[in-house]
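Lecture 7 notes. Example A: sequence first, then its structure tokens.
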Amino acid sequence: MHRTGGPEVMEYVDVELAPPGPGEARVRHEAIGLNFIDVYFRTGLYPQLLPGGLGVEGAGIVEAVGEGVTEVKVGDRVAYAARINGAYAQQRNIPANLLLALPERIGFDTAAAMMLQGLTVQYLFHRTVALKAGDTILFHAAAGGVGLIACQWAKVLGVNLIGTVGSDEKAALASAHGAAHVINYNKENFVERVREITGGKGVSVVYDSIGKDTFTGSLDCLAPLGMMVSFGNASGPVPPFSLTELGSRGSLFITRPSLFSYASNRSNLEEMAASLFGVVSSGEVKVDVHQRYRLDEVARAHTELEARKTTGSSILLP
């Protein structure tokens, strides 16, 4: 990318890749993750230096290491999710301390599809709020990549997840993955349905990656002292609001977390990854790759992602 804008600003070009520098490793990608955060960078909602690449997640083989690297070695199977753009490539150099050894029982396609989304669910459910059996939560976009992992992980924890979706097909998908209740927001008022499902009490936590379109309604779904977790902007950024809105609804809490804050040190990253690898390896959480695109089809991939035509996870294949 030399400028921000629509899918057409992404160019498929050859570049010269230097040897990995000190502390870096070169990874040959077998699969690359496609995420909505990539759209935010492409449009300029999230700033980055240009010209530059996109993509924060991938899986592959270590082909070379730079001076001082101890975390990985040549030939290792690795995966990563890191806020350093550049995964939309056949190969890249990346700080080795961001790479995680990938268990043999987890394939590259699965790894590329799950790192950002799976680690996101891990911190949302275990760190932002430590959910416990019996909790009732609302999770928007329950049939997306993050949502389908969340539906399954909530069921593992004994948490009652109420999911919102935009079609009956997506509702069936979320239900099949463990959502206790599913609301089609194009047919029902999700605030009224949440109140109905909870007997008027509301939920203890709302997880909202939609942003502008659902923000106020999400606050209205919370029980007093509930937590609003705003972790995305699929419909646009949340507009400014008065803190009195939280007080008038029952002394609510609100947070705007990011994976890269929770995984800012190696110890936390390894603990979070071990938790994710454990539930995926056990089969308790299955990662559904519903869309596969060639790397040179990335413009079409972005168009379909933004139009909400995708379900589950999507990957790019170099």
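Example B, a different protein, same format:
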Amino acid sequence: MMTWPLGLSAWNSASPFSKPRSADCSPGPDGPRADPDPLCDLLEKARDAGVEPGAFVRAVDAEARRRLGAFLDGVEGYRSHDYHRAGLDPPPVWRQGSTVLRDFSDTPAEPERRARARVGPPILLVPSLINRGYILNLSQRRAFAPYLAWRGLRPILVDWGAPGAAEREFTLTDYVARLEAALEFVRETTGRAPILLGYCMGGLLSLALAQRRQAVLAGLVLLATPWDFHADRAAAQGRLATALAPWIDPVLEVHENLPVDLLQAAFATIDPPSIGRKFRGFANLGPRSAAARHFVAMEDWLNDGVPLAGAVASETLRGWYGDNTTARGRWCVDGEPVRPESVTIPAFVVVPQRDRIVPAVSARALARALPRAEVREPLLGHVGMITGRRAVALVHDPLVRWALKTTRGKA
């Protein structure tokens, strides 16, 4: 809304915003100016093309109105859509504080596949702390965890929940300790050494746990997991840290947790124009189409985040994003530095090349540091690697093959 009138004023000859830095756009006495004004260049091109200024302004105005209208149509269509995610998650099999575990081995419809999953290699799925874990079981059509069960693994999902009374003072060390308790439950329940799978921020928690308990793990899977947060400061991680830095202390002085609305606003700074693009695209979809239902499911998940406990917000946003404590070897869990080079169990690392949340160069640094990592770099995005149409072929199937091979013959 703000860019619309500002954009139009730049083309209005009566507006000071339309005036270039110099008095006019003509070349200087020694030829073309050394510091050409971008607006001058555009005006000269329009003039050379014979575009009448008034017609140009009217065209910009019409296009701005069209885009704004399509955006608002998309938002309204999303708000009024009748899709609601319900009944897709298995009941909890373990609980500690706000955290529960969900066993997906009973989700395959075919009895023989259910039986196979019940005795299959266990894989503990660890999502991020700030987004709901059901991204790994988004919908009937895009269901990562149930697909792993269908292929013969026994996926058990960590559902963190929102921080409650028990988690108000939690640090990352506390969350790793809780994850360790969940791991012990899985080991006792299945009688087998599990694979530990971490997605995004959950990958860092999984890495820390793997370092502590690799003797009882069959392997480690890391999906879109950041490590070198300063590898590309111009990319998403740098922009996110810059957006949040001024707000952390003032907000935590008032709130025990970092509110989800602030986190959502900060993540929106990664690619602000994408918000308009996606809702305009949604406005063109048939409301009953599979694509429209998937869009609504994704948006519901994106808007269903959870706050971060205050100490965790400080450790992650100041430490990881701000000071790059991970790559500098200064991130500690229970007083011990987390060092990927010390994790010698088999690892499967996926580095999505089109990831705008975790730049590939950041995740690649972690893959290089792991001694026994098999690395895949699909042409997918951060969420597309989980729910995209090509995710099964490029990520899920290779992961299953690696997991079955890695656990073959292991108790």
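Note on Example B: Residues 384 and 390 are 8 Å apart (CA to CA). Residues 16-23 have pLDDT under 50 and may be disordered.
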